[in-house]
Every structure is written in C-alpha cells, then in structure tokens.
Amino acid sequence: MAVALIVASPLALRFLDSEEHDWERLSLIGQSYGAISAVLAAAAVIAVAMTLGLQQRQMRDARRMAIRQFQTDLLAMAINDPDLLQAWGQFPRPEGVEPRLTVYTNLVLNYFILLHQTGAANIDEIRMHLRFMATSEWVRSYWQSTEDVWRTGYPSKKGGIIAVFSEELGTSPQAAQQEPPAA
To answer: Which of 37, 46, 53, 160 has its CA at a distance of 20 to 30 angstroms from the CA of residue 17?
Structure first.
C-alpha cells in the first residue's frame, strides 16, 4: 500500500498545484520527497544491519549446538564402551563408580550449561533441576570430586552457571529440599 502511494504520488502533484503548470512549485513539492527517500533508505540500512546481526547470532548458536551434539555423540559412544573413555584422558570421577554414570552426569551438566548459554532456560529453572539432582548422594559426590575441573573449564564470564552448580549440588539433600524454589 505504501509503495503504491509513493509510486502514484508524482501523478498527484498536479492536484496539489492549483495553478496551471507552475514547474517551479512542482519542483519544490518533488524535492520534499528527497527527505522521505533519505529516511526510507536509512530505515532500510538499519533493517539490513539488524538482520545481519540476528543471522550472525543464529549461526553462532547453531555452531555451538552442532559442536555440543558432536561432543554428546562422542561421549555416548564412551557410555556404550567405557574403554573409549581413555581417549579423553583421566576422566574425573569418584572412586569405585561406573564410568558410564560419570559420563552421563557430565552430559547432563553440560546440557544445563547449553540451556543457560542459549537462553532456552532461565537460571531458576536450572536451579530447580539441580535441587532435584542434589537429592542423589552420587551427584553430590560427583560434584565434589569434579568441581575444580568445571571451574577451570568455565572461567569468569561463563562461570556464573558453575557457581549455581556449586550452590545447589554442594548442599545436603535435606538443605536442598528445605530451600523454597525461586519465584
């Protein structure tokens, strides 16, 4: 509709001019479209810049998800064949624990980090899941033995989620159950 009005506007110039073919007046009216044209061009440039920024963010998120999926696939192979864990080096785990459980717990915590980084879940949702996980003695033991590794793997800027892990998984199950959920 707006495009049709802009295209038809030169034809309307005759109706705006009461005098017969005053070209100077018609020229002044036509020049007023220059300002509108500049505004429309600026809006178009801003829209293109915003679109490029959004596409860049989507590509970065897609790349992060693809990398995480690849890591998940590799670790899933190690869950099925614990001998493959040797390729990852000394995988931190509490003594006497099945390696598959350690790898799976690692994947779950990495999943929470991904949810946090992509904004798919807010921190209160993640806390709720962590409080439920903290009712397991195994998870608290796992966290106690691997917390330092997680802290060095996610320093400063991304370390906020690790602090939440420490707060929720470092508690006893009674403390975790007694804390009211964040609203």
So the answer is: 37
Q: What's at 140, amino acid-wise?
A: R
Taking the C-alpha atoms of residue 180 and residue 183, their distance in angstroms, rounded to an integer, is 9
Instruction: Give the whole-angstrom CA distance, residue 67 versus residue 157.
Output: 20
Q: Give residue 91's pLDDT band: very low, low, confident or very high (50, 70, 90).
A: low
What type of residue sits at position 156? S
Beta carbons of 93 and 142 less than 8 angstroms apart? yes
* pLDDT average, residue stretch 88-102: 71
**Residue 22, both tokens:** 């005053």
Q: How far is CA 129 from CA 89, 105, 134, in A?
A: 29, 13, 9
Cβ atoms 53, 37 nearer than 8 A: no
In angstroms, rounded to a whole number, what is the distance separating the alpha carbons of residues 86 and 78? 9
Token pair of 72, please? 């998940």
Please, what is the end-to-end C-alpha distance for the chain in angstroms? Answer: 47
Residue found by looking up tokens 């009461």 in the block: 18
More confident residue, 11 or 54: 54
**What is the pTM (predicted TM-score) of this model?**
0.58
